Amino acid sequence: MVIRVMMLMVLLFVNNANAFFLDQQKTFIFVSFSMSDEALKSYFAESQKAGAQLVMRGLINNSFTQTKNKTMELGISFDIDPSLFKQYKIDVVPVIVIDDEKKRINQEIN
C-alpha cells in the first residue's frame, strides 16, 4: 500500500510539472468501492493535491442513497462516469490515466 501511494505521488508530481507546460492535459484516477476505505481516502487526498479527477464506474448497489452515505462517511468526492472506463478500457482499479489532448490532436492532424 505504501509503495502504491508513493508511486501515485511521484506520478502526480510529474503530471503537475507537465501540466504547467501543457494546458490540455487531464489526469484521471479510476477507483471503486471494492477498494479499502483507507485506499479510497488516500487516492482522494492525492487527487485533490494534484488536480486529478477521481472516477468511479457507478453506484453502490445502484443506489444513490447508499453511495451518498458511503461518500459522506469517507469524506470523499468523485465523478461517476462509466463512459471513461469504456474509453480507456479500464477493467481493474486503481488505474491512473494521464491524457494529453494536445499530443492526441497533433497526431490526428499529422
TrEMBL record:
<protein>
    <submittedName>
        <fullName>Type-F conjugative transfer system pilin assembly protein TrbC</fullName>
    </submittedName>
</protein>
<feature type="signal peptide">
    <location>
        <begin position="1"/>
        <end position="19"/>
    </location>
</feature>
<dbReference type="InterPro" id="IPR014113">
    <property type="entry name" value="T4SS_TrbC_subgr"/>
</dbReference>
<dbReference type="InterPro" id="IPR019106">
    <property type="entry name" value="T4SS_TrbC"/>
</dbReference>
<keyword id="KW-0732">Signal</keyword>
<dbReference type="Pfam" id="PF09673">
    <property type="entry name" value="TrbC_Ftype"/>
</dbReference>
